[in-house]
Sequence to fold (136 residues):
Amino acid sequence: MAQPIRVRNTRGELVEAKAVSASDAKSVGRILDHVSRDGGVTITRRNEPLAVVIPVEAYARLAASEQASLDSLAGEFDRVLDRMQQPGMARAMQRAFAMTPEELGRSAAQRAGKPPAAARGALAARVRARKPRGRA
Fold:
């Protein structure tokens, strides 16, 4: 017997997909023909996309790539968390939270290898763009 197919529900939980045989869903036959011939079908309700039916091989590839992405993000999170546990990081984070936006911008620009003046100019331009022009 094949492995159960698992999908993420609307709450993001990984659940086993409901299985319905083609004989139980007689009108599904044409859809399955399109899927096997064309690689997928979009099912609409009131002209709005509602679902996509794809071959199981395509689903397996998508599910594997999703898991690889989650593994990659989990690994990155673990590395950042490990760095945050190093001695002195608590003090560094407290300093960062105490910085003004300008100080934080200069620090970020220095870490990124950009000249602080360029960062200040870019920050000033963004601030000017957000300020309302005149009063009502």
Summary: The chain is about 55% helix and 10% strand.
